[in-house]
Structures are given as C-alpha cells and as structure tokens.
Design a protein that fits this description.
189 residues, alpha+beta, 23% helix, four-stranded mixed sheet
C-alpha cells in the first residue's frame, strides 16, 4: 500500500467513497450551542494570512513547501521573524495481513520492509503537516526540526515532526572594496 502525497496539496487526500459533511446519524449541536470563538476572542498566531513579501527559500525540487532544516541556524541566512513551535502528527496502524507477514519476517531477522515503508510514509506526512502549519503562520522555513516516534498499544505507531517556524532572508555578502588606487586617486596627492 504505497501512497504518494503530492507536494503542496492538502492532507489527507480524498479517498474513494469520501463524503463531505457530518457522518450519518449526526443530529447537530445541542440547543444554545454557539459555533466559533466566544465573543471578544482575538484570533492570532497561525490564523493570520501569510505576508506576501516573504521570500521563497525552499530548494528547487524539495518535496516540502518551506525550507526544513535540522540545524539551529541556516548558513547564509538570517532569521527576521520567529513564529514559534510548529508540529505535524500522524498515527498509523498496519493492517492484519501486513502484521502477519511482518511477524514471520521478524523470526528470521533482518529488515521488515512493511514497517520501514509505513514509518517512511509517516515521517513524510508528519513533516508535510508541520510545513502546512508553518505556511499558515507566514513562515518560509523551519529550523531545529526533530522527530519523535512512539508506539501506542503495541499496534500503532505515532510519528511527530516539530521545529521552529521562522522567516529567513538571504544575507547579502559585503561588497569587496577596491584596494588598488585609480589614476584619479594618484593625481589627488
């Protein structure tokens, strides 16, 4: 079961049989329920639209819409704005057939490709969700990105990607000063 998620597309992709709207049998909110934030609540953080003057710095061919780095600093760039922590999270479970096949493979030792594929896909999904959160904040890069992986109930794998959303700009190198005197400079003395 290989799923390729195209870059810059909303996740999750629409599956066959997907029907938008409430699930069957949903009765709606109880009487008196008011949807949305309470009166006087100020929305902030990642709800703000991305500024249009933020430079695009993700490398050509990158599967992610923003630059993602595990480094704390980005050589050649300066962080103009720091938005704070962003994260992406996914929890996956293998189907019974894959678990059955993997259990036999584990008896012989070596790599279990079913789980390798699941974890690789999980990491990609977690990073993509983190990037989308950073984009919503207005960031063009994520610094100090890390992964956290856990097992839930011995049947599911949880993968979290997290980092710091920032706006970075390329640092212009200083101009080289001409150290040789011109003809005009020689005549001034």
């Amino acid at each position: 079961m290989t799923q390729n998620f195209p870059p810059n597309q909303p996740y999750p992709p629409q599956q066959p049989g997907y029907q938008p709207g409430p699930p069957p049998g949903y009765q709606g909110p109880p009487p008196g329920y008011q949807q949305g934030p309470p009166p006087g609540y100020q929305q902030g953080g990642y709800q703000q639209p991305a500024p249009s003057n933020v430079p695009h710095v993700a490398p050509q061919g990158s599967p992610y819409p923003v630059l993602v780095s595990t480094m704390n600093d980005l050589p050649g760039y300066t962080a103009d704005t720091v938005f704070g922590e962003v994260f992406g999270l996914t929890v996956r479970s293998r189907d019974f057939g894959s678990n059955f096949t993997a259990s036999f493979r584990s008896l012989g030792g070596g790599e279990v490709p079913e789980y390798t594929q699941m974890l690789a896909e999980s990491r990609h999904v977690a990073v993509m969700r983190m990037c989308q959160m950073a984009q919503q904040m207005g960031a063009n890069a994520i610094l100090a990105m890390r992964f956290d992986c856990n097992e839930i109930a011995q049947t599911m794998s949880e993968v979290a990607a997290y980092g710091t959303a920032v706006v970075v700009r390329k640092v212009e190198p200083p101009r080289v000063q001409d150290s040789t005197p011109d003809e005009d400079d020689a005549n001034d003395g």
